[in-house]
Design goal:
By secondary structure, this protein is of the alpha/beta class. The relative contact order is 0.14. The strands form 3 sheets. It has a 7-stranded mixed beta sheet, sandwiched between helices. A 3-stranded parallel beta sheet has the order 7-6-8. The protein has a 3-stranded antiparallel beta sheet with strand order 9-12-13, with no helix packed on it. The protein is 44% helix and 17% strand. It is built from 14 helices and 13 strands.
């Protein structure tokens, strides 16, 4: 399912664009996202900002490119594409979402050439200390807070077991490995059994199709093994669709995706046509909710009301624009900068609340004010919000350290 702006919205955008882009943009913002097959929501956020501020090819502000689908083995391609953006003399902001491996090195090389470009990384795959050595700001889902709130949400929904599904590459990432460790500790504290299951990496030789087939084939055995009161969580977008399909059909719980969105897995899993709801997130949520309830998943399956990937692309572009124009502070790392980043996210999520904080290293206790953690409340389809965005995270979880993945 491709998320594009509706004809009516596009007409309004076109009318404004005629006036807004009559004169060429004074500066450009480069945006790199994944492709439709890798991270559709991220790409659709870029399309929104092109509609809002125009394509640079037509005198607008936005230059959009995509990183390779097999990005782990094509880092040099990613790097060269980002460096190509810096060759544009009008380029003042570069946004990469998701900031796949190679982004930090690309940003380092950009900084060697240009010190006038704001470098923003969304959902970085590289460790906080690595990406923020080069990026001005990185934003990530709150892996510390969500490491606690996702098991808490599972408990509130009725789960007795929490099944974490991933693979070695993801578990080697500091953010994902740390969240897994926090989830395991949270489950102990909440009285939930924690188990870890390994599934194929979609970027391996089996590809996306093989990885998805593995989830489809193994879910019946997992449901039989762990019971219908088990909650399932996977760290990969590609695993999400088959996981949702089987949870709806077989039982179990699903609190939210790794990168939560009503579009993350639900349309494909349940055959939902959202062509008439394009770009209308409340309408999308309502239709997904209807489909989930019809499939028997009401009260057992959740999401964020607005897409993390979509919002992150749009919010970072908006933040960069306001920073260059001087309406946002140039004091990066300040309390004001954190509030302004939340403001940029809020703009694209009317009615939803975002909480945010700067990342604190569990080993050193040092706060990294270039790495912002954000989370939105969980919406259980057929039930409503769980109130998790306002939950105070117990202090102990901020000192938990990453543990090696199981073999």
């Amino acid at each position: 399912m491709k998320l594009k702006l509706s004809a009516a919205i596009m007409l309004v955008v076109a009318l404004f664009a005629g006036a807004a882009f009559a004169d060429a943009a004074k500066f450009h913002i480069g945006v790199m996202t994944g492709t439709v097959s890798q991270s559709e929501d991220d790409l659709r956020g870029a399309e929104l900002m092109i509609a809002k501020y125009g394509d640079a090819k037509d005198g607008g502000m936005i230059v959009h490119i995509t990183y390779p689908d097999n990005f782990p083995s094509e880092q040099e391609t990613t790097i060269s594409q980002i460096l190509g953006l810096a060759d544009d003399p009008l380029m003042k902001v570069i946004v990469v979402n998701q900031a796949v491996p190679g982004t930090a090195e690309a940003f380092r090389r950009v900084r060697e050439r240009r010190n006038d470009i704001l470098l923003l990384a969304g959902e970085p795959h590289e460790d906080p200390g690595v990406i923020t050595e080069a990026a001005d700001i990185a934003t990530h889902t709150d892996h510390i807070g969500r490491g606690y709130t996702i098991p808490l949400g599972a408990q509130k929904m009725g789960a007795k077991t929490f099944v974490h599904i991933s693979f070695p590459r993801h578990m080697s990432y500091e953010t994902l490995g740390l969240r897994r460790a926090i989830m395991e500790e949270a489950c102990k504290d909440l009285g939930i059994k924690f188990v870890f299951e390994t599934a194929p990496d979609p970027t391996s030789d089996v590809g996306m199709a093989g990885a998805q087939q593995y989830i489809l084939e193994n879910m019946p055995a997992w449901i039989e093994k762990y019971g219908k009161d088990a909650a399932f969580f996977c760290t990969n977008d590609g695993h999400t669709e088959p996981l949702l399909r089987q949870v709806a059909a077989l039982g179990g719980y699903f609190v939210e995706a790794d990168l939560p969105s009503p579009l993350m897995g639900y349309p494909g899993a349940l055959g939902i046509d959202l062509s008439k709801e394009q770009g209308d997130w409340p309408a999308i949520l309502r239709k997904v909710e209807e489909a989930v309830i019809k499939a028997g998943g009401g009260g057992r399956m959740g999401t964020w009301a607005y897409s993390w990937g979509y919002t992150t692309t749009a919010a970072l572009v908006e933040y960069g624009k306001r920073y260059v124009e001087g309406t946002f502070t140039n004091k990066l790392g300040s309390a004001q900068a954190l509030r302004e980043m939340q403001e940029a996210y809020d703009e694209f999520c009317p009615g939803a609340h975002w909480g945010g904080s700067y990342f604190t290293d569990a080993v050193t206790g040092v706060k990294n004010t270039k790495f912002i953690l954000l989370r939105q409340d969980t919406y259980v389809l057929g039930k409503g919000y769980l109130g998790l965005a306002e939950v105070e995270i117990p202090e102990k979880y901020f000192s938990i350290r990453m543990t090696p993945p199981e073999k």
